[in-house]
Design a protein that fits this description.
Shape: globular
Number of helices: 12
Radius of gyration: 24 Å
CATH class of the largest domain: Alpha Beta
Strand content: 15-25%
Order of helices and strands: EEHHHEEHEEHEEHEEHHHEEHHH
Largest sheet: 6 strands, mixed
Structural class: alpha+beta
Strand order of the largest sheet: 6-5-9-10-12-11
Number of domains: 3
């Protein structure tokens, strides 16, 4: 039995191990380095950058626009925890610099099948602020259109821009930057999928992540810069803000947590979901009360069991309803 200690990593016969389900496996070099950082109470973004010849034109432009400063200087960079006199620029500074050595965001726009690639852009070795901006530009190209109503011209979102911006900003803030992999943004006709390298931070469960109960910033320095630039409004509210943007939509966003990645799926909001009469009746009932048992739904709809089950299963397949629990029958 090995209890958790403060000064990681602990070695057995010169090797470090971790528990994986019911087995014990030796950790790889990357995870070993993370244990060393954790034992020193340090994060990857705090490590001194390999490149010390960094420029910050994009960061300066954004701070002038939002904060009203005249220019970025060493004192501001120190305040943002991007620079110190002892060790120079850190990895967080490199990520925000105009040029760096990091992978970024890989965006693919698919056609009718995944074999049909309509557009692609790989954003790497540039400031994560520029990555966010260019990703939003591509989003607007495919998921926004203008609609003329009378004398007004309105911009219509197929997917709420607030939700997409929040998902990308959170991916940049919370991803593991020591993994040489890109954030994958897959654009489809009916949805966008955003996959971010790195699973949930240690000490937070999937339920806590989805409910926004606990916020553990993997990259707090970058998170603070995004907060100051108003890219995010409050730490730990990303999932709640994405869900709020879909509050009136029938099909909601979904989230998948894996051991080494997190995926956010944002569906296109449609005016017509091709519901038949029975499906519309059940949807209207569940709009008034979000959680009901099958028997309660049958009673409220005055519908026989076999028809109710067929209709519910159809709505589940269309991802309009979600079934939880496993009651008998």
């Amino acid at each position: 039995t090995v209890y958790e200690g403060r000064y990681k990593p602990y070695l057995y016969k010169g090797k470090a191990y971790k528990r994986n389900d019911s087995s014990t496996v030796e950790v790889d070099r990357l995870e070993y380095n993370r244990l060393i950082l954790e034992g020193c109470n340090q994060t990857f973004e705090e490590i001194t950058s390999f490149n010390q010849q960094l420029t910050f034109a994009k960061l300066e432009t954004e701070f002038i626009r939002v904060m009203g400063i005249e220019k970025i200087n060493k004192d501001i960079l120190k305040t943002l925890e991007l620079y110190s006199d002892q060790s120079g620029f850190n990895n967080a500074a490199a990520l925000l610099a105009d040029d760096n050595q990091f992978t970024g965001i890989d965006i693919i726009r698919f056609g009718d099948t995944i074999d049909e690639i309509m557009d692609r852009e790989s954003l790497e070795n540039i400031s994560i602020l520029s990555q966010l901006e260019k990703t939003l530009q591509m989003f607007r190209k495919y998921y926004q259109y203008e609609k003329i109503e009378g004398a007004e011209r309105k911009c219509i979102d197929k997917i709420p821009e607030k939700a997409f911006r929040e998902a990308i900003a959170n991916a940049l803030i919370h991803r593991m930057w020591d993994i040489p992999a890109s954030i994958k943004v897959s654009m489809y006709a009916d949805r966008i999928e955003i996959s971010s390298p790195g699973g949930l931070p240690a000490g937070i469960s999937e339920e806590e992540y989805l409910n926004g109960q606990i916020s553990i910033l993997r990259n707090p320095i970058i998170g603070n810069v995004f907060f100051r630039l108003k890219y995010i409004e409050k730490f730990g509210t990303g999932i709640m803000r994405i869900n709020h943007a879909y509050r009136n939509a029938l099909i909601k966003p979904s989230y998948q947590c894996f051991s080494n990645s997190i995926k956010v799926i944002l569906p296109v909001i449609r005016e017509n979901y091709d519901l038949n009469e029975a499906e519309q009746i059940l949807v209207n009932i569940l709009k008034r009360k979000e959680k009901m048992s099958r028997s309660e739904i049958e009673k409220a709809a005055e519908m026989e069991k076999s028809k109710a089950v067929r209709t519910l299963n159809s709505l589940i397949e269309k991802k309009i309803l979600k079934k939880t629990g496993a009651g008998r029958g």
